């Protein structure tokens, strides 16, 4: 009897303890809110179109903590019903930091003091039940140490994983008297968001701050108006709170209500974007613009009146697998070439200034600088038939993946005559076979590229293959990568052609010779 009673008491104690742990782990989150929104989009030219859909956004105060409840937290790996992963925000080179630390470093790069973002609120689409989705727009509201609003920041993402930001300072030039919005700013369209539009024109960005003078929450309203380069209205997008009492503190009750009434609202965002793009393409007859290289990432003034270099991309996205290994092979090839030309130094830089340069060689009379504007340069160089193709097609005349400081020096550094290459690099019949297979693959790629643009005017040798240094010249790994890159490109072209996808004139991605200047 005593034993049974003891076991019963122990069971009750365990149940109470478990309930306590659950309640503690799912505790309310301070300074964090869920807000239901309706987003509406309307296009005016070259064809009319409109649509709208619901969203649920989280508005929360940024801090350096990740030990929030399992309802909602900022964390890379710790699970919660709703979560914000800091790796998905702001400058990619600072993604090992918390969002607030990344924000301060990002603003410091642009000349702002740390006090500009002494505190900040972020409004964004959280990950739901561990399932992530594209996050097209996030808004930061920054405050100084006296709780004065300093900046409103628009962070924009595209479906390619690239990021950009637009900064609206709180000053006389941006404050407006409106019942809906508190600030606005005209800024050039410097970031590729949609295949339906190019990067020309400018935005009128409008926003309201989330707290009034009495520190009462007022769900922000956002409006983006897009004008083309001739100042003709092209597009509007609105983000407006929907329903009564739409801002709810993040608690067990509010999260359960969200998951039970709008469980797939945010998860459908990418599908909705894709559907609208396909509808405009196939039913409204709008041709696609291909994604351009990300280009200059910092030091782009949003308008002539700015005193700081504010706008621009937030850095390259993570380096793709094939690009990483192609880069390693090319760097080894350049090391080998520099050893032959002992008085030449090569410096590889990136338009993302936070990526460290790579220096090859030292004590040189001549310096060659390669400024990389896209990681894709490395994969395309791997299947390029010769140096002239690299300079003219991958360089600024055409695809603009790289800016080469001295074409003649680059040509002299990489060029080998066929006989010396084979005698130096092919120490076995196997190596000779790999070198020939690589040459054949590059020759086939050049022939395919020429076939895509039969009317292109060409003033250099496209189809002639040349020998390269190891490992670019005779490496099994390079051969495997070259095959994968070539197959990937041809499969991409085949599928898009099969689906009847149309691009703007001279903009088809797999027809680079159409863009030669």
From TrEMBL:
It comes from the Eukaryota. This is Uncharacterized protein. InterPro entries: DUF1365 (IPR010775). Keywords: Membrane, Transmembrane, Transmembrane helix. It comes from Wallemia ichthyophaga. The keyword Transmembrane helix applies. The chain crosses the membrane at residues 476-501.
């Amino acid at each position: 009897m005593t034993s049974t009673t003891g076991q019963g008491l122990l069971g009750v104690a365990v149940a109470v303890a478990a309930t306590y742990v659950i309640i503690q782990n799912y505790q309310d989150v301070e300074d964090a809110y869920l807000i239901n929104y309706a987003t509406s989009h309307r296009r005016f030219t070259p064809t009319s179109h409109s649509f709208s859909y619901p969203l649920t956004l989280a508005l929360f105060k940024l801090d350096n903590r990740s030990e929030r409840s399992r309802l909602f937290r900022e964390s890379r790996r710790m699970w919660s019903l709703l979560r914000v992963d800091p790796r998905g925000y702001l400058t990619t080179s600072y993604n090992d930091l918390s969002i607030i630390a990344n924000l301060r470093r990002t603003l410091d790069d642009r000349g702002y003091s740390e006090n500009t973002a002494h505190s900040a609120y972020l409004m964004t689409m959280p990950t739901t039940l561990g399932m992530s989705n594209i996050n097209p727009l996030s808004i930061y509201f920054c405050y100084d140490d006296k709780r004065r609003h300093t900046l409103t920041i628009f962070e924009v993402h595209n479906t390619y994983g690239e990021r950009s930001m637009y900064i609206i300072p709180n000053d006389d030039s941006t404050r407006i008297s409106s019942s809906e919005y508190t600030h606005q700013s005209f800024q050039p369209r410097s970031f590729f968001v949609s295949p339906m539009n190019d990067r020309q024109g400018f935005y009128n960005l409008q926003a309201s701050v989330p707290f009034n003078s009495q520190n009462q929450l007022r769900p922000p309203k956002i409006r983006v108006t897009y004008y083309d380069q001739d100042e003709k209205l092209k597009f509007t997008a609105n983000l407006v709170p929907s329903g009564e009492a739409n801002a709810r503190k993040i608690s067990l009750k509010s999260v359960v209500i969200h998951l039970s009434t709008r469980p797939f609202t945010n998860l459908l965002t990418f599908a909705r974007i894709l559907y609208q793009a396909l509808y405009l393409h196939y039913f409204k007859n709008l041709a696609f613009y291909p994604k351009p290289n990300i280009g200059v990432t910092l030091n782009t003034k949003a308008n002539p009146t700015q005193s700081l270099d504010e706008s621009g991309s937030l850095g390259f996205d993570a380096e793709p697998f094939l690009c990483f290994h192609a880069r390693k092979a090319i760097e080894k090839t350049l090391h080998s070439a520099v050893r032959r030309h002992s008085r030449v130094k090569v410096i590889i830089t990136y338009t993302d200034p936070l990526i460290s340069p790579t220096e090859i060689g030292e004590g040189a009379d001549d310096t060659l600088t390669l400024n990389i504007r896209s990681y894709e340069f490395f994969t395309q160089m791997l299947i390029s038939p010769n140096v002239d193709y690299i300079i003219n097609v991958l360089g600024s005349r055409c695809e603009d993946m790289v800016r080469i400081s001295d074409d003649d020096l680059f040509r002299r550094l990489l060029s080998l005559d066929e006989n010396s290459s084979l005698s130096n690099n092919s120490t076995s019949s196997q190596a000779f076979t790999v070198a020939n297979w690589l040459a054949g693959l590059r020759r086939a790629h050049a022939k395919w590229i020429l076939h895509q643009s039969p009317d292109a005017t060409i003033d250099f040798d496209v189809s002639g293959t040349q020998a390269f240094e190891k490992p670019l010249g005779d490496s099994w790994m390079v051969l495997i990568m070259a095959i994968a890159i070539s197959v990937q490109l041809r499969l991409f072209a085949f599928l898009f052609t099969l689906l009847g996808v149309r691009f703007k004139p001279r903009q088809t991605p797999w027809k680079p010779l159409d863009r030669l200047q």
